[in-house]
Amino acid sequence: MSTQNVAALCVGMLIVHPALAMTTDEACANVARAAEAVMQARQNGMAMQTVLEKLNDAQFTAAGKDGFRAVIMMAYDQPHFNTDENKQNAINDFRDQVQLFCMKGGN
User: Fold this and answer.
1) pTM
2) N or C: which end of the chain has fewer CB within 10 A?
3) pLDDT tens digits for 86-107?
């Protein structure tokens, strides 16, 4: 994931919810939850186009949509697993990877 994409996603999440006074940790936790939902859809066999269409319907800023689109592409670049245990491991690992990257400021 590029620094610009994660930064755009983090900023986009903050802009989507301007009334919430979120810390960076809270914002990154929100980004991680969104990443988790995307990877769960991927592991459950949802078509990438369906996820992209849901993104287009969401109330994100342009920067937020760009960042979230990058997360979708990253999730669908990962393998799809057959067993529930492997699916859950992939979901958890992806969520934590995205959150860590966000918390490090994209470094």
Assistant:
1) 0.77
2) C
3) 999 999 999 999 999 988 886 5
